[in-house]
Design goal:
Main location: mitochondrion
Low-confidence stretches: none
Order of helices and strands: HHEEEEEEEHEEEEEEHE
Domain Large ribosomal subunit protein uL6 alpha-beta: 164-246
Helix content: 10-25%
Shape: flat
Pfam families: Ribosomal_L6
Structural class: alpha+beta
Protein name: Large ribosomal subunit protein uL6m
GO molecular function: rRNA binding; structural constituent of ribosome
Strand content: 25-35%
Length: 261
């Protein structure tokens, strides 16, 4: 048992006085007004209200995507794809985006609906059940992929890599004996190692060096471009103490003070 505090003893004395004064005069016990709610009983006690926040639709996914006049959007019929990890059959749809720079295919789940208005030149995405977390997640993800594909086939994507360091150089050359596809280019890097680094450019990506310390990557698939840029950057990750390395686009780094023993 816990020892009663000062408030509990004062409350008990007040209740005792009220009961004793009422029992001496009559058989009806009168409680103070502030104690009445505590002694009230009911057959169905009211439960504490519990509020649940409703699932909000994706702000990005429900935004209409504008389609340029020179871009065509074709949605295929649903087809079944077998997952190689779970061996489950998943219903998919293929969205083909074609433009003046090329063509890209995007696989989307069947529960994502695309309302393609050819007259207004825009596409609106929706899902079957907004309360399911997986569908809400894929809603915005599919919107981002589709928007990048449309921009890629109409305008293209670029990535600029900056080589910062003494003696860091880059050039683009061909290696016929190492080609994985006809006309493949190779990026030759000099990053302070004892040998130059040769990296084959992925299919669909064009590499050039407007300056010895600049690498320009161009293509229609942004995912492939940034993946190749990350592989180049991995050879010389920016050093926070000296500030040297390979920087992608507008990447910056905050320099740290040297460790003094």
């Amino acid at each position: 048992m816990f020892a009663p505090g000062r408030g509990g003893r004062a409350l008990g004395r007040a209740l005792g006085r009220a009961i004793s004064s009422s029992s001496s005069s009559s058989s009806v016990v009168t409680l103070p007004s502030f104690l009445v709610p505590a002694f009230q009983t009911s057959t169905s006690p009211a439960r504490r209200p519990f509020s649940v926040t409703t699932a909000r639709p994706s702000k990005l996914g429900r935004t209409p995507i504008s389609i340029p006049p020179n871009v065509d959007l074709v949605i295929s019929e649903p087809w079944i794809k077998k997952d190689m990890t779970t061996y489950l059959k998943i219903v998919k749809k293929t969205v083909s985006v074609s433009g003046p720079l090329g063509k890209l295919d995007l696989e989307i789940p069947d529960y994502i609906k695309i309302d393609h208005d050819e007259q207004a030149r825009r596409a609106t995405l929706s899902v079957e059940d907004q309360n399911l977390k997986q569908q809400r997640e894929m809603w915005g993800t599919t919107w981002a992929y589709l928007n990048r594909y449309i921009m890629g086939v109409s305008e293209g994507h670029t990535a600029v890599l900056r080589l910062v360091g003494i003696g860091y150089r880059a050039s683009v050359d061909s290696r016929p004996a190492l080609e994985e596809y006809p006309g493949q280019q190779f990026v030759l890097l000099k990053l302070g190692y004892s040998h130059p680094i040769e990296m084959g450019v992925p299919f669909g990506v064009k590499a050039s060096t407007p300056q010895p310390t600049r690498i320009l990557l161009e293509g229609i698939n942004r995912e492939v471009i940034m993946s190749f840029a990350a592989k180049i950057r991995k050879w010389r990750v920016p050093d926070p103490y000296k500030g040297k390395g390979v920087f992608v686009n507008d990447e910056t780094i905050k320099l740290k003070q040297k460790k003094i023993k």
